[in-house]
Design brief:
By secondary structure, this protein is α/β, with parallel strands linked by helices. The chain has one domain: Aldolase class I (TIM Barrel), CATH 3.20.20. Helix content is 41%, strand content 16%. It has helices at 6-11, 24-36, 51-61, 75-84, 96-105, 116-124, 140-147, 167-171, 187-192, 195-203; strands spanning 15-19, 41-45, 66-70, 88-90, 108-110, 112-113, 129-132, 155-158, 179-181. The strands form two sheets. Strands 5-4-3-2-1-9 form a six-stranded parallel beta sheet. It has a three-stranded parallel beta sheet with strand order 6-7-8. Strand 2 (41-45), helix 3 and strand 3 form a beta-alpha-beta unit. Helix 2 (24-36) crosses helix 3 (51-61) and helix 2 (24-36) crosses helix 10. The N and C termini lie far apart (32 Å). It binds 3-phosphoglyceric acid.
Length: 210
């Protein structure tokens, strides 16, 4: 399987769903429901003890999906995610160690940044496609507009506080390719196995770029 680029991960759909899965049995039906709604790039956060097993299950059983790992904070996280079958990684912040570990493991990385200095550090290591996190808390659309001058070569995926209502304003910005958000997989829908609702939430995002 050839390696993905971060830009390919970002361009596939307007929204990258941020998934927090506590029950491995939910992983495959959740991924299938999202794919059915037109969303293939899936970020499974390494926030639950089951996360790596969930990545493994999706990689094995849902070939139409492209599974990535979120909340990658260390080099070990990156290596474990790659071993489980993740094809991309998303990190809440950036360190050169995580950047190098992702390169070594063949994982496309969307490094998280919230300040100009962090953008400069990521760019120094060759990363120009970045996650803006936590986006709405750290300045939202106004911050992205301010960055478009000095960082005209950087493209962002704002994540954190993004909703179906504020996503269009973000997606309309020239330096935003996609957004990330957890609203496509509400915990109550997972708990009750309401996969139809999740497919509908996914479908509702596919036209958000306008
Ligand atoms: C996260 O890491 O939790 C993501 O940024 C999702 O944030 P959200 O729940 O505000 O969409």
């Amino acid at each position: 399987m050839s390696n993905l680029t971060a830009l390919q991960v970002m361009q596939d759909a307007p929204v990258i769903p941020v998934l927090v899965i506590s029950d491995v049995a939910h992983a495959v039906p959740l991924a299938q429901a999202l794919v059915k709604g037109g969303v293939r790039m899936l970020e499974v956060t390494l926030r639950t003890p089951q996360a790596l097993a969930c990545i493994e299950a999706i990689a094995r059983s849902v070939p139409q999906a492209v599974v990535g790992a979120g909340t990658v904070r260390t080099s070990d996280d990156a290596r474990a995610a790659a071993r489980a079958g993740a094809r991309f990684a998303v990190s809440p912040g950036y360190t050169s160690g995580v950047g190098q570990a992702c390169r070594d493991a063949g994982l496309a990385l969307l490094p998280g940044v919230a300040t100009s200095s962090e953008i400069m550090a990521a760019q120094e290591d060759g990363f120009n496609e970045l996650k803006f996190f936590p986006a709405m808390q750290a300045g939202g659309a106004a911050m992205l507009k301010a960055w478009s001058g000095p960082f005209a070569d950087v493209r962002f995926c704002p994540t954190g506080g993004v909703t179906v209502s504020n996503a269009p304003e973000l997606l309309a910005l020239s330096n935003v390719v996609c957004v990330g958000g957890s609203w496509l997989a509400p915990l109550d829908a997972l708990a009750s196995g309401d996969w139809g609702r999740i497919t509908q939430l996914a479908r509702d995002t596919t036209t958000l770029r306008g």
